[in-house]
Amino acid sequence: MSFSGKYQMESHDNFESFMEAVGLPDELIQEGKDIKSISEIEETGDHFKVTVTTGTKILTNSFTIGQETELESPTGEKVNSVVMREGNKLTAILNGIEYVTELTDANTLVNVSLEHMAGGFTK
């Protein structure tokens, strides 16, 4: 399946605690908690362009699977990472946080973010 398409957020669980963990300021967390973001993905072979629009904030990252690239994190920080693909899942680690985007069917993306801790994972 191709990731290409436009997806609107339907729900986000543990948003506030996760955004606190990644260092987003409280005022931005409060502004963002009720806004439904829109993700647009363009996939051409192994090259992807992902644009996430949340209110007036637009975050765009372009990458090629398996190649190191500079990505912008949700906090706005630029981080070098490698995006990997395994079937219908894209994974990348930014600042110790693993981001997994899974295409569960032709119309549904599920994003999961896990904070990496010494000795294991935590939610």
TrEMBL record:
Pfam family, one: Lipocalin_7
Domain Cytosolic fatty-acid binding proteins: 5-22
Gene Ontology MF annotations: lipid binding
Family from the record: Belongs to the calycin superfamily. Fatty-acid binding protein (FABP) family.
PANTHER family per the UniProt record, alphabetical: FATTY ACID BINDING PROTEIN
UniProt protein name: Fatty acid binding protein 1
Source species: Oncorhynchus kisutch (Coho salmon)
